[in-house]
Structure formats: structure tokens, C-alpha cells
Specification:
21 helices; two-stranded antiparallel ribbon; mainly alpha; about 475 residues
Length: about 475
């Protein structure tokens, strides 16, 4: 136990950061002339040890960085504090009979380019520190008479033992460009006034601090965003939990039912549910939306069978209408969304559960039966823990996916559900919205990018926090040996 605690302290993030910068300081203090020269000319340390390939590459990167700083980073970062001061103006020139546009500032491009520049500077600083540590390590190897790789050996390593690094370089750059930088842009926009009244390039943006966050979390006269956010956040989390649990439990029960020895034609039943998966989800959702419309076929059938009148008599349907508001009443709509999602999601979960059930250790099941355990006890003590152990990561992924489940909510309610809550309408929201559909509506219909960015940042924090905590708990469990 004491050794484990020592290992945890040794690998603590703060200690790792301290060692990282401490090694850099050691390299600066104890390095020879070539190493110290690398503080200014990064390739000197490699050249002194005849590492010509690395020396050339590092020197070219340093020169490229200096050029980028002078001609790209500096002009944009100089305007980053204000996001531009010259607004776009078009003036009619009587000599040319054309509109001429002044040399204006595009606030969004300034913001984007500045973030890219700051990210590039940050990456270069890390590379700079690593370079100093690397050339100092070469010095130590030379002092200890250890072998230093030649240029040919370095090339062979790039295409041999370290070929995986070569292959991963391009995907890593792609992830940075497509995922990391957009997140920083999202965060930055959340602190600006980017909306339909401030649309670059015609208008300039400006920094507004935490006012957008205050607007989202605080309710008051003239501000309905706080009210809408609380309701939508509650529904988003409720939906994510129910959508995940209902499809998971339904899929497991359906898989067990089909795989029972007493079930006839299991392949046929399994095939029917696979066909349901094969149909594109948006087709299924649009058809179901038409079926459950106020004038749809389901309402017609319910009316003819007297179901509508019976629901009126028990108070589930208002007496002022002659239909069941499946998708037009907030309570009915939420219930139907969860119900329809079960139909859409259970077949997929059934396939996964089928694969898991087929791999349950049979010796454990036989031992339980010999000991006299009932079918329910076997299911609760052996089958379900095994399924949860195997599908735990997938359930976490499904929960996060359901938080961002755009298709089900949007396709079922768009142009169908109209909110009667004026506070929700003032915030351009609906009771059935998830945070992601509200975000989409704010950007696509109302061009309120600043509030959409704040909401997007909140969604990211929720998903990231839940994923990190859940996966850390799963990894800490380490129950793999129980199922060997």
C-alpha cells in the first residue's frame, strides 16, 4: 500500500510538470557551450554532435516560426485586444461609378488568426523546451561514451521502430485543426458580443467579459435565458439518463428473450430488428412524426376507438381539443420522444447485448444452477454484472451521445411543436429542446452566436467531466480477473 502511494505521488500531474521544467533548467545551467547556444540557435546542439538531420529540421522550424511571428502572429495579436477598430464602410466613387470599400478590420478573422497564432506559440514553446532537454541528453551520452545515432540510423528509425510516430503525425495535425482549435474559438466567442447586430465583416466585435455567462445563469426582468437554461438543462439530463437506460435495459431483455432456448425462430426475430436498424434514422423519425401528428393516423385510430374521449375523462387530454397532443403538448411530447427513442435504439442495443450474452462464462452459470440459484438471481448476480462490466464504456458513450442527440428531438418536433411559454419563446427556446438543439436554433435561425457559444461550452464541460469521472471509476475497478 505504501509503495502504491509513493508511485501515485511520483506520477502526480503537478510533480510531472515540475520535473518537466526542472529538467529544462538543468539543461540550461549544466549544458556546455553548444547546448547553451541552442537557446538562441536551436540546431547548434545537434550539429555539435553530428546530428545533421535533426539540426537542419530544427533550424528550418525555428526560421519558419520567426517568419510566422513577424508576418502573421504579430499583426493579428496586435489587434486581438480590441478585435479591430476600423469598421467596414462602402463609399460611392463618382469617378469610377463604383462602390469602394475601405481597409477595414474583420473581427472574426482577427480572433481566429490570433487563436491559431497563440496556439502555435504555445506548441513552439513546448518544442523549444523539449529541444533543450534533447541536446543536453546528447551531451550526457557523449560524456558517458554512449552511442549516438547517426543520420542513417535516424532515417531507419523513422521508417522502422518509430514509424508509428510518422504515421500519427498527420492525424494529430488533423485533430488539432478540426477539434482543438474550434474549441478555443468557441470559448473566445463566448466572451464577445457576436450576434445578429454584430456580424463581421460589416460590424466589429468587442469583448464583453462574463456578461454572456451571467445572462445565461441569472434570471431577471428582460432576461429569460436563465429561466430557459435551467429548464432545458434539467430536461437534457433527464432525457440522457432515460434514453440510455431504457434502450440498454430493453436491448438486454430483448436479447435474452430471443436467445432463450424456448423461443421459436430466433433468427427471424433478430433479422426483423436488424432491418429496423438498416432503415435510415431520419426516415423513421419523419414517418413517426407524421403518424403521431394532431391529424395523423394514430390520432384517427384513437378517436375511432374512443381512446381520446377516455383520456379526456381522466384529465390527460384537455377537453377543449379533439385529438391527443402527442407532439404538441410539452408533457406528451417528452413522453413520446422517450418512447419513440426506445423503438429506434433498442435494436442496436439488442445486437450488442446478444454478443455479450454469448460470451458469458458458462462455468459460472452452471455452478450457480447447481447451487440452486433461481433464474432471477443468476440474472441479477452474474448476467447483469457481466454485461455492465463489458458495456460500461459503451454506456458512458451512449449517455454523452444522448446529451448531444440532435436527430431525435429536432426531427420529431421541428415545425410541429410551438411553445406557449413566453419566457421560453423570448430565449428562442422550446420545452422539448435539448441544449444542442437550442444551440442549433440560436445559430441557424437567430444568429446569436455568443449565447450559442456559451451553451456549447457548458455542454462540453458536462460531457468532458462526466466522461473523465466515469472512465476513471471504471479503470479503478479493475474487475477483469473475475471474468477470466
Amino acid at each position: 500500500m505504501e509503495e502504491e502511494k509513493k508511485k501515485e505521488r511520483k506520477h502526480h500531474p503537478l510533480r510531472a510538470i515540475g520535473r518537466y521544467f526542472g529538467d529544462f533548467g538543468t539543461a540550461v545551467v549544466k549544458g556546455d557551450a553548444a547546448v547553451k547556444s541552442s537557446l538562441l540557435f536551436m540546431g547548434v546542439g545537434y550539429a555539435a554532435r553530428k546530428q545533421w538531420l535533426k539540426s537542419i529540421v530544427v533550424t528550418l522550424l525555428e526560421i519558419s516560426f520567426v517568419i510566422v511571428c513577424i508576418f502573421y502572429a504579430a499583426p493579428n495579436l496586435a489587434k486581438f485586444g480590441t478585435l479591430g477598430t476600423v469598421e467596414r464602410e462602402a463609399v460611392f466613387d463618382p469617378l469610377t461609378m463604383q462602390q469602394t470599400v475601405n481597409d477595414y478590420d474583420n473581427s472574426f478573422l482577427i480572433l481566429l488568426n490570433s487563436i491559431i497564432a497563440l496556439f502555435a506559440i504555445f506548441v513552439f514553446i513546448l518544442f523549444y523546451i523539449h529541444n533543450m532537454k534533447a541536446v543536453y541528453e546528447l551531451q550526457r551520452m557523449e560524456e558517458e561514451k554512449l552511442h549516438i545515432a547517426t543520420t542513417e540510423e535516424q532515417l531507419r528509425a523513422i521508417t522502422g521502430k518509430k514509424f508509428h510516430i510518422t504515421l500519427l503525425s498527420l492525424p494529430t495535425i488533423g485533430v488539432i485543426l478540426m477539434n482543438v482549435i474550434p474549441i478555443f474559438v468557441l470559448v473566445a466567442i463566448a466572451f464577445t458580443d457576436y450576434d445578429q447586430n454584430h456580424m463581421p465583416p460589416n460590424k466589429l466585435l468587442s469583448w464583453v467579459g462574463f456578461s454572456n455567462f451571467i445572462k445565461l445563469f441569472k434570471s431577471g426582468i428582460g432576461n429569460s435565458f436563465g429561466y430557459a437554461f435551467r429548464k432545458i438543462l434539467g430536461w437534457t439530463l433527464t432525457w440522457a439518463v432515460l434514453a440510455t437506460l431504457t434502450t440498454f435495459i430493453g436491448g438486454v431483455l430483448l436479447a435474452m428473450l430471443i436467445n432463450k432456448k424456448t423461443t421459436k425462430w430466433p433468427k427471424m426475430w433478430r433479422t426483423l430488428f436488424i432491418i429496423a436498424i438498416a432503415v435510415p434514422q431520419f426516415v423513421t423519425l419523419l414517418l413517426v412524426r407524421n403518424f403521431f401528428a394532431d391529424n395523423g393516423i394514430v390520432n384517427t385510430i384513437c378517436s375511432n376507438l374512443g381512446v381520446t374521449d377516455w383520456l379526456k375523462s381522466i384529465g390527460l387530454v384537455s377537453k377543449g381539443i379533439n385529438y391527443i397532443p402527442f407532439l404538441t403538448d410539452p408533457h406528451w411530447a417528452k413522453f413520446m420522444i422517450i418512447l419513440i427513442n426506445i423503438w429506434v435504439g433498442v435494436p442496436y442495443q439488442m445486437l450488442i447485448a446478444t454478443g455479450v450474452l454469448m460470451n458469458i462464462p458458462q462455468d459460472q452459470l452452471e455452478s450457480a444452477r447447481i447451487d440452486g440459484a433461481s433464474n432471477w438471481k443468476i440474472f441479477w448476480k452474474i448476467t447483469m454484472p457481466y454485461i455492465l462490466f463489458i458495456q460500461g464504456p459503451a454506456l458512458i458513450t451512449d449517455f454523452v451521445k444522448n446529451i448531444n442527440n440532435f436527430n431525435v428531438i429536432y426531427l420529431l418536433t421541428q415545425n410541429v411543436y410551438i411553445t406557449a411559454d413566453q419566457s421560453m419563446a423570448s430565449a428562442h427556446a422550446k420545452e422539448v429542446d435539448l441544449l444542442v438543439t437550442w444551440l442549433f436554433r440560436l445559430t441557424n435561425e437567430y444568429y446569436d452566436y455568443k449565447m450559442a457559444s456559451v451553451i456549447g461550452l457548458i455542454v462540453f464541460i458536462i460531457c468532458a467531466a462526466f466522461t473523465i469521472i466515469s472512465f476513471s471509476k471504471l479503470i479503478a475497478g479493475d474487475r477483469e480477473e473475475e471474468y477470466q
